[in-house]
């Protein structure tokens, strides 16, 4: 390495694996990246997206200056205008007439400031996030079972297990480094079995000993049947259940008897495969069940989560090496956002909005004039409120809802009619940008500084290694400056991310004597230099208790009122059906080499080479019936909207189903925003949209 070259330890900005990255800046301005061998989540591994990060740092589409109504403006005028419009709306229509819609892409420090401003100073809980589209069902399921949003295990558990069940998770494409770890563990341990539960034959099936290709949204039937099987075969861990849990009988009663024939009919699986899976699960003590968006993105997502968690509570396989239910998050900081209360139904520090004592703790700590005392609007209902004129001022940060929310055309119409829209963004290539009255240029990966939390509760530093270009500023600064102009200068006088992290850590430990799961009080006095040097660590780390136990619930200690883990009775309901006009079931998701709306991954040819254009996976049997040949253009249409994409004929999907990736925007390809086709139906507990099922019609374009 030459003298001018400098290597910085940072974290990948893409998926929830949260890999450590070494970014080296060279004298010619180029940046190369490598996996950080010292990071305990990836040990030097990277996937295709992470290893291409250095090729995605160009400024060609960047927003470099604030804009008001499409014209360049100075920061003072832009921030004054934002503060004035929010204040006017609050004065005339009350605090619930304004809202923030933020993102799992922003850092924990940005999230903390946004949440503090909205819930503690504006006095509304109208702050929701695109994590609602990603994780909300797991959050709701965790809170029902554990009394807190706690992931009990750690990545190492996948390597220590003898059975890994992957439910609704294409780990190979969506969490590739975790998949690499599992692949290596399977090679090293021939006894390790992998079961994939997924309606689609994904790349993850390459390492599956058993693929359960069930009908969409029938997971509850499969896991209720498993719970009944465990009860009937006396595999229940009575000692764990009696000491540490409540409600097994009611959950077993709700599950009904283990009638394999009925389960086969409900799920579309063969009796043999169901029986084989149940026996494997029953006989394997070291079992981890990993679940992701196929579970969460469903109108019965929370019930799916609890049907899985019930089976682990019943066997006592939770929080022990190689055992547990394990939710893997989609985004780089979905967990960090949850830690600071970045959802419309949560408070900071994993405290509960509906709990008066928790509200008192937060308000006292913040010394704030008010604290929101009822849940705000969740993502889909928030944009419905915008459309109905109930939201007068909206601030969107680091996400493009006109691309990513269901009924995306309806979201675009909502933004058109909203009296005042602020967008904090990195790029002009987001379809939401044209709807902004005020555009605020935000710092991107490589320029930002702060922390993120990955799926195993590991907090890592994202460090800056590039100067802020133009007049770009980080999101926490945008928010603090507006807060200051709204009259809250004292509470928002942060000098930088270290100061915000200290406050966040202090709040997590405030009046928390083990009564809440999230506690990083050990870091409440961290100096700026120590924050700069912060090594990745897993929470909890309460003050005076280093290092922490990295697993939860092996010996009870749940965060429910009774201190016991709760079985949740879950009743299987037959999934929604397709219709005569719309006979196909639409499934959406990620592809291996792209991230969200491709504003970064789309910049490098080696990533776009994987799939150069949007497509619809169709079974050849359906294609023949519809007269569709390979690579034909096809229309995929619902009652909400339509896309025109290339047909990809494959047996990865079964007849009657169609899969379309979520990444393409209007700026990338005409008529390829699949979220414009998706129905805005949500889970009643979590508010998460069912992004894996919309009835659609498919025809040659
Ligand atoms: Fe980044 Fe996820 Fe790939 Fe790791 S697995 S390099 S976090 S995209």
Automatic annotation (TrEMBL):
<comment type="similarity">
    <text>Belongs to the prokaryotic molybdopterin-containing oxidoreductase family. NasA/NapA/NarB subfamily.</text>
</comment>
<protein>
    <submittedName>
        <fullName>Nitrate reductase</fullName>
    </submittedName>
</protein>
<keyword id="KW-0408">Iron</keyword>
<keyword id="KW-0500">Molybdenum</keyword>
<feature type="domain" description="4Fe-4S Mo/W bis-MGD-type">
    <location>
        <begin position="5"/>
        <end position="61"/>
    </location>
</feature>
<keyword id="KW-0560">Oxidoreductase</keyword>
<keyword id="KW-0004">4Fe-4S</keyword>
<keyword id="KW-0534">Nitrate assimilation</keyword>
<keyword id="KW-0479">Metal-binding</keyword>
<keyword id="KW-0411">Iron-sulfur</keyword>
């Amino acid at each position: 390495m030459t003298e001018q070259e400098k290597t910085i330890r940072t974290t990948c900005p893409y998926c929830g694996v949260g890999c450590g990255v070494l970014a080296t800046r060279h004298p010619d301005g180029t940046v190369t990246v490598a996996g950080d061998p010292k990071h305990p989540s990836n040990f030097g591994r990277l996937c295709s997206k992470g290893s291409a990060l250095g090729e995605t740092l160009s400024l060609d589409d960047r927003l470099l200056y604030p804009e008001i109504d499409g014209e360049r403006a100075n920061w003072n005028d832009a921030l004054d205008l934002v503060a004035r419009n929010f204040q006017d709306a609050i004065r005339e229509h009350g605090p619930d007439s304004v809202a923030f819609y933020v993102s799992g892409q922003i850092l924990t420090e940005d999230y903390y400031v946004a949440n503090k401003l909205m819930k503690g100073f504006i006095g509304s809980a109208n702050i929701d996030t695109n994590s609602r589209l990603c994780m909300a069902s797991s959050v709701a399921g965790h809170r029902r079972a554990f009394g807190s949003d706690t992931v009990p295990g750690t990545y190492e558990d996948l390597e220590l297990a003898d059975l890994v069940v992957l439910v609704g998770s294409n780990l190979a494409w969506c969490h590739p480094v975790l998949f690499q770890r599992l692949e290596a563990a399977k090679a090293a341990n021939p006894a390790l079995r992998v079961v994939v539960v997924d309606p689609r034959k994904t790349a993850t099936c390459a390492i599956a000993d058993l693929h359960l290709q069930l009908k969409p949204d029938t997971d509850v039937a499969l896991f209720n049947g498993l719970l009944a099987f465990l009860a009937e075969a006396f595999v229940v861990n009575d000692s764990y259940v009696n000491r540490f849990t409540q409600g097994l009988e009611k959950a077993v009663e709700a599950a009904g008897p283990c009638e394999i024939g009925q389960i086969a009919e409900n799920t579309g699986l063969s009796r043999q495969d169901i029986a084989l899976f149940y026996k494997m699960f029953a006989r394997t003590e070291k079992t981890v069940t990993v679940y992701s968006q196929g579970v969460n993105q469903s109108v019965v997502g929370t019930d799916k989560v609890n049907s899985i968690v019930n089976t682990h509570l019943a066997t006592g396989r939770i929080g022990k090496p190689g055992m547990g239910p394990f939710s893997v998050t989609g985004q780089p900081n979905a967990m960090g956002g949850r830690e600071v209360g970045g959802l419309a139904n949560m408070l900071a520090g994993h405290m509960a909005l509906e709990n008066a004592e928790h509200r008192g703790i937060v308000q006292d700590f913040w010394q704030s004039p008010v604290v929101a005392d009822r849940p705000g609007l969740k993502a889909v209902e928030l944009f419905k409120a915008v459309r109905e004129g109930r939201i007068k001022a909206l601030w969107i940060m680091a996400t493009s809802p006109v691309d990513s929310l269901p009924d995306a055309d309806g979201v675009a119409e909502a933004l058109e009619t909203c009296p005042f829209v602020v967008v904090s963004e990195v790029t002009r290539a987001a379809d939401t940008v044209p709807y902004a009255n005020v555009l605020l240029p935000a710092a991107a990966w490589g320029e930002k500084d702060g922390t993120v939390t990955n799926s195993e509760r590991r907090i890592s530093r994202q460090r800056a290694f590039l100067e802020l270009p133009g007049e770009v500023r980080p999101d926490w600064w945008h928010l603090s400056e507006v807060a200051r102009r709204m009259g809250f200068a004292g509470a928002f006088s942060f000098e930088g991310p270290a100061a915000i992290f200290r406050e966040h850590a202090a709040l997590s430990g405030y009046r928390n004597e083990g009564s809440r799961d999230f506690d990083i009080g050990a870091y409440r006095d961290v100096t700026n230099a120590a924050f700069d040097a912060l090594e990745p660590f897993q929470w909890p780390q309460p003050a005076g208790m280093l290092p922490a136990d990295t697993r939860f619930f092996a010996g009870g200690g749940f965060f429910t009122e009774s201190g016991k883990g709760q079985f949740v009775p879950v009743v299987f309901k037959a999934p929604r059906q397709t219709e005569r006009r719309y006979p196909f079931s639409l499934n959406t998701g990620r592809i291996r080499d792209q991230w969200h709306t491709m504003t970064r991954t789309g910049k490098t040819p080696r990533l776009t080479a994987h799939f150069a254009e949007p497509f619809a996976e169709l079974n050849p049997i359906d294609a023949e019936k519809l007269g569709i040949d390979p690579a034909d253009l096809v229309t995929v249409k619902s009652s909400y909207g339509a896309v025109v994409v290339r047909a990809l004929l494959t047996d990865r999907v079964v007849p009657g189903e169609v899969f379309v990736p979520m990444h393409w925007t209007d700026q990338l390809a005409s008529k390829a925003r699949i979220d414009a086709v998706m129905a805005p139906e949500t889970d009643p507990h979590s508010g998460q949209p069912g992004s894996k099922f919309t009835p659609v019609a498919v025809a040659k374009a």
